[in-house]
Amino acid sequence: MDLFDVYPLQPVKIVRGQGSWVWNDRGDRYLDMYGGHAVISIGHSHPHWVDRIENQLRQLAFYSNSVELPLQQELAKMLGEMSGLPDYHLFLCNSGAEANENALKLASFYNRRRKVLAFEKGFHGRTSLAVSVTDNPAIVAPVNQGHEVVFAPFNDVEALNSLFKEHEFTAVIVEGIQGVGGIRIAETEFLQALRRHCDQSDTVLIGDSVQCGYGRSGRFFSHDFSGIQADIYTVAKGMGNGFPIGGVLIGPQFQAKHGMLGTTFGGNPLACAAALGVLEVMEKENLIEHVAQTGAYLMEELGRMPELQNLRGRGLMIGFDVPESHKNLKKVLLEKEKVFTGEAKGGVIRLLPALNVSREEADVFLEKLQNALKSC
Ligand SMILES: Cc1ncc(COP(=O)(O)O)c(C=O)c1O
Question: The whole model's pTM is what?
Fold first, then answer.
């Protein structure tokens, strides 16, 4: 059997990782400023995370959600405290798309409506409802069509004012910083207007924090910068540092009913141990503050490089546009300088390193970037 060829692959075989570094099969070392697509939060194979998983594996890897699993409670408690949402409830699942699917479903159960408001260039996953609220027709199959979705321009308060007059929505789903869309920050005024409209119309505000959440922006949720609180937050990526886990953080106004949501693997002991390992390291190493400081440093230094256009971002979620003259930058960074970076449509480079990337590693990156800019 061969692999179903859906991923455009970079010609590198990665076989090992440690902290912010990965190695290929020939022993060459690469600096990972991409974090395996914003997934690596506490660094590749962090020793505490490895211990947590190893110990759990010897104890109990899996049991179903038909019994009490104390690690789930532990995770919910710690996540509630660290995210500043102690009165929210946690539903555990396995990926970002699944988290969004369940969040949207929950909103519809809550207010019995059907129509969703989503935003241009937003990305929310590839399951049926999640992909239908994602602004990319190329990945929507006919079988995913038929959901009632309205797409609005991002950061356009005027558009919101008229759309909320015309429609009755079950939910609005919004990233605090659009990731796949090219690192576009939701403005304070925009998120505050959304919150106001949702309050006035009993619409559920869903903060998709799958990529921009979990400390990556320098706050637990990037939506926090606007001083608003979403009714539901969805998380995944950095939550498990590579161990697949997702979560839906659900406001106290939502009533749970047995059978309403469910999944076989969601919240299994191994995944909970991995997620607890991540939170423990984030707390002990004061990572959110570290992200804010390292991010500010990177932004300042990148701001001195005239070739980089429209530099933007928060914390360790940084993007810039690459001019036509340097359109090979990502390739040169990878092949010559041995640095992984992310990209987005339209010549955008995305930086999504581990939250504990050090100042020294940031300096190594800046030097390699300078070299790459020169040899483009
Ligand atoms: C903002 C956002 N939401 C949802 C998803 C989907 O997550 P997953 O690939 O884990 O299903 C992604 C993935 O890139 C994302 O960036």
Answer: 0.98
